[in-house]
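Exercise 7.
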Amino acid sequence: MGKAIFAFLLTILAGWVGMAVGHEILGGFPEFGTVLSVAVMGALIIFFNDRKQ
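Solution. The predicted structure, written as C-alpha cells, is:
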C-alpha cells in the first residue's frame, strides 16, 4: 500500500509541476503536466515491476 501512495503522490506532484512549467516557461501549454504525469507513472510501473523479480 505504501508503494501505491508514493506513486500517487509523486504523479500528482509531477503533474502539478509540469503544468506550472508548461504554462509559464512553454508559453501557455499546461497540457505538459498531463504528459509528464503519465510518463512518471509509466516509469514507476516499470521500476516497481523490475524490482519485484
